[in-house]
Write a structure and sequence with these properties.
Blueprint (H helix, E strand, L loop, with lengths): L2 E4 L5 H9 L3 E4 L6 H7 L5 E4 L7 H6 L5 E4 L9 H6 L3 E3 L6 H16 L2 H9 L17 E5 L3 H12 L3 E5 L11 E2 L3 H7 L2 E4 L13 H5 L5 E5 L8 H10 L2 E6 L23 E3 L8 H21 L20 E8 L4 H11 L4 E9 L2 E8 L5 H8 L4 E6 L2
Parallel strand pairs: 1-2, 1-3, 3-4, 4-5, 6-7, 6-9, 7-8, 9-10, 10-11, 11-12
Antiparallel strand pairs: 13-15, 13-16, 14-15
GO molecular function, one term: phosphoglycerate dehydrogenase activity
Catalytic activity: (2R)-3-phosphoglycerate + NAD(+) = 3-phosphooxypyruvate + NADH + H(+); (R)-2-hydroxyglutarate + NAD(+) = 2-oxoglutarate + NADH + H(+)
Family: Belongs to the D-isomer specific 2-hydroxyacid dehydrogenase family.
């Protein structure tokens, strides 16, 4: 019975799907540090995490039984994807499942900050009646600047236009503008134009420290800043200084450079106690609907990979979509992408009298992935011969 370890309080649907597929599932509510993780991965084929657990190259090197990692979130920067690929550990995430939830919290933050609801709420809870329109605005007619026009940015663009906002976006890659959204020629153009700036960039290392004091200084005086992307993208000290000086009239921050590992742990930030600043504990995608969808999506992906070898939407291996027909013995062979590998595989199978019923090859950078269905039993001699090839990364016999 294969073993799965699910950390960080994943949705129960993930456990149910894997147990129905025959996994022995262990669940933990919090993240694990490196030494705890290495110890816990002994004999485990499948690891499920969210954003807190760091799956480093050292962890992967010591997790000899690990076959796949499921990131039950959008980001995968907490996983050393290159090291995982080099060891033949497939990684899957949920690129779409919580998009709507993140977009909705962004819209809520935009309206709340523009209307200064946080200030009114705090004063009312202190027993102060301060009815005033000063500093409160409609979002209709204001300009939203979206940095990062991917799955979240594009859907946010559409909803913001439906609220009567103008949308300008900036993305390093060429993207199709939706509706009446306009692409900014540069980041500076967006910053000087937008009344609200919202960040939806990915977790690649080059985005660390992307948005700090110089970028905030180029924003319109009194603008609003949102960061629902990655904690290391924005400098919190620069945000604090801008709120205190009035350069920013408000901010909503959902992600932080250092975050507690477990629910209930203390939280510290330069942004505590500031006026018209919304702080949320990395809950942009944390709705019951999104977490259930993520639990189903990622659990199904890793289950299918272990059962059939299908790598569709894997973030670090060549993508191959596969079903498994009955009556075949499937070899899933991850290898270095060099000339002649497929010929050597087929020659080895022929030498051992293995007839090929079907075969599919895909490549991705330095890796190749060939899946072969054999019509007869595959002996240990065949497996040993394939694993002995210098190009071999990982070979699995799936049936």
């Amino acid at each position: 019975m294969p073993k799965a370890l699910l950390l960080e309080n994943l949705h129960p649907q993930a456990r149910a799907i894997l147990e129905a597929a025959g996994f022995d599932v262990t669940t933990r509510t919090g993240a694990l540090d490196e030494s705890e993780l290495v110890e816990s991965l002994d004999g485990v084929q499948l690891l499920g995490i969210r954003s807190k657990t760091q799956v480093t190259a050292d962890v992967l090197a010591q997790a000899k039984d690990l076959v796949a990692v499921g990131a039950f979130c959008i980001g995968t920067n907490q996983i050393d994807l290159r090291a995982a690929a080099d060891l033949g550990v497939a990684t899957f995430n949920a690129p779409f499942s919580n998009t709507r939830s993140v977009v909705e919290i962004a819209i809520a933050d935009i309206i709340a900050l523009t209307r200064r609801l946080t200030v009114f709420d705090k004063e009312m809870h202190s027993g102060v009646w301060n009815k005033s329109a000063t500093g409160a605005h409609e979002v209709r007619g204001r300009t939203l600047g979206i940095i990062g026009y991917g799955n979240i940015g594009t859907q946010l663009s559409v909803l913001a236009e439906n609220l009567g906002m103008s949308v300008v976006f900036y993305d390093a890659a060429e993207k199709l503008a939706l509706g009446n959204a306009r692409r900014a020629a540069s980041l500076d153009e967006l910053l000087s134009t937008a009344d609200i700036v919202t960040l939806h960039v990915d977790g690649r290392p080059g985005n660390a420290g992307f948005f700090g004091a110089p970028q905030i200084a180029r924003m319109k005086p009194g603008a609003i800043l949102l960061n629902l992307s990655r904690g290391f993208v924005v400098d919190p000290a620069a945000v604090r200084d801008a709120i205190v000086s009035g350069q920013l009239s408000g901010a909503a921050i959902d992600v932080f450079p250092v975050e507690p590992k477990r629910k209930g742990d203390p939280f510290e930030s330069e942004l505590l106690g500031l006026p018209n600043v919304i702080l949320t504990p990395h809950t942009g995608g944390s709705t019951e609907e999104a977490q259930e969808a993520i639990g189903q999506f990622v659990a199904n992906k890793v289950r299918d990979y272990l059962a059939t070898g299908s790598t569709t939407l894997s973030v670090n291996l060549p993508n191959v979509a596969l079903d498994q027909p009955p009556g075949v013995h499937r070899l899933a062979y991850l290898h270095r992408n060099v000339p002649g590998v497929l010929a050597k595989v087929n020659a080895t199978l022929a030498e051992h009298g293995v007839n090929i019923e079907g075969q599919l090859l895909a490549t991705r950078g330095e890796l190749g992935y060939v899946v072969t269905d054999a019509g007869s039993t595959v002996s240990d001699d065949v497996l040993d011969a394939l694993r002995a090839q210098p190009e071999a990364v990982r070979l699995r016999l799936l049936s």
